[in-house]
Amino acid sequence: MMYIKRVVRLVFVFLVVTFFTFWLLDQGKSDLLAAKAGLNATPENVAQIKTELGLDGSFVSRYLEWLGNALTFDFGDSIVTNGFSSWELIRESLPKTLELMVLAEIIAITIAVPLAIASARRPGSWIDKWSSSGAFGLLALPSFVLGIYLSFVFGVKLGWFPTIVDDLPGLNDDPFDNLRQMLLPSVTLGLNLVAVYLRLLRSDLIETLQEDYVMLAQARGLSERRIMWRHVLRPSSLNFTTAVGLNVAGLVGGAFIVEVLFGINGMGRLVIQRVVLQDFEVVAAVVALLTVAYVTLNFLVDILYSILDPRIRHGAR
């Protein structure tokens, strides 16, 4: 029952977002209709342009038709790029953005979790002070500033990595060159996440370490490593797991900035180009896909949350 309610809520969110997205798309097309028709257009010309732009019929009927087509990844043809559908343009850019986001998450989790554990085990130690100070510094540092600094040091000065991701090969074609080109952008995006994950997990770990059952395990002579991994880390991972799952929106925004900074031909550059060109079909398609991704991850996080803490699942019955 709990999952059914959440599915209904997420479907409602999806419908609301796509409805307003289509409304904005419709407004943009109406402006384009006025610009194309001009002041001296005949009714026949206006009707022809309406048909070309898909503006004939009522708003609700057009929305339902667009939504039905979107469920099969048919978002209409690009208004600007003739001969290409919106999905074809997105499909070309999407893998690069997904790779950037996944690598950034892996880097962030790989750095944040060990540092949080080390800091929680020894509060006030040198590693706790240094990691906390570094987290505050990263939170105050915008991703584009961090990206410029990393590009200058490791790209321009040391020459270890390219500063512009040009002609990126697929992971299956040349994984070494692919990762070499994507490392700086991924680190740029991931380091901002480290600060959030580190502070959140450290705080929860310290709180859990003070629980009675943990002290009882210590009194029984269990090793510190076993206590941490079997009795502390799992209940302390609830907020951390939620943050990882629900950080998609912020991660997408950061990925767009990083893509422009490093010249990655991903979704970020695609959206900016299509907004400038007023290619409303592509922009609406991107918003719809991001909405689906967000509500799906939200649902998966709810499921994982109830697995990590069964009290949530039992309490909802």
Give a description of the structure.
This protein folds into 2 domains: 1-71, no CATH class; 87-314, MetI-like fold (Orthogonal Bundle), CATH 1.10.3720. The protein is globular, with a radius of gyration of 24 Å. It has helices at residues 2-37, 43-53, 59-70, 86-121, 126-140, 143-157, 175-209, 212-219, 224-236, 238-246, 248-262, 267-276, 280-308, 310-315. The chain is built from 14 helices and no strands. The chain is an all-alpha fold and 317 residues long. The N and C termini lie close together (7 Å). Helix 7 packs antiparallel against helix 10, helix 8 (212-219) runs antiparallel to helix 9 and helix 12 (267-276) runs antiparallel to helix 13. One of its GO terms (cellular component) is plasma membrane. It is found in: Cell membrane. Residues 94-301 form the ABC transmembrane type-1 domain. It is a multi-pass membrane protein.
End-to-end distance, in Å?
Answer: 7 Å
CATH superfamily of the largest domain, by name, is MetI-like
Which spans have pLDDT < 50 for at least 5 consecutive residues?
none
Biggest sheet character: none
Number of individual domains = 2
Helix content bin: over 70%
Shape: globular
SSE order, as H and E? HHHHHHHHHHHHHH
Radius of gyration: 24 Å
Structural class: mainly alpha
Report strand %.
under 5%
GO biological process, one term: transmembrane transport
Keywords: Cell membrane, Membrane, Transmembrane, Transmembrane helix, Transport
Family: Belongs to the binding-protein-dependent transport system permease family.
Domain ABC transmembrane type-1: 94-301
